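Exercise: predict the fold of this chain.
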Amino acid sequence: MRLNIHVSIDFRMFRLQPKRSNASHVFLRHVTPAISGRYSCEVSADAPSFHTALVSGDMDVVELPKTRPSIAGVKPRYRVGETISGNCSSPPSRPPANLTWLLNNKEAEPQFVTHYPHMIADSDSREPEENRRMSSRVGIQFVVGPQHFSRSPGKLKIRCTASIHGLYWQSTEKSVEEEKPKGPQAPEATRPSFYEGHFDGVVVEQEIMVVPAGTKVFQGA
């Protein structure tokens, strides 16, 4: 049998490694996004049949993000009824990463999620479109409810995952604590106070009681 690789690109753009290639495998080095495309494998039988089979497949060269995704705008504590609003961003890659929000390990409902347009990396603005790396950003906004703290008492886990095909998967997680409302404050303790009055040259010192507004005071006969 013999193996023929047919691609619509210049083979001089990368290096074929003959020692690591054989009738069923081809090993390439120094690949770039430019060699992404459709590859064909043709298998031919020797005489006397000379049967031929041709199979094709697409190959995409991926440039992975340099760091994991990051979450911004999410505070460490929220009360039930407050609104959580945050963003998740992934650094430039090719193709851009797919971002997914998870709340307590369950994918967030679509109405809570906002997908923003991909942004071209500044350094790639003059590159051909097929070579440009792009960053990804996705937002989330929802009202905190008691159910968000039920599975992990007092805490809500917010996670953002970034994935590219089956080659890359990274995530970042933040834990949000439930902030309990503060109860009514105890009334301020009554405290004595004194004032001086002057009547016809005689100094009179009288004790009064200062109490919080609304407190009933009962005086003896």
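Check your answer against the key: Residues 19 and 198 are 113 Å apart (CA to CA).
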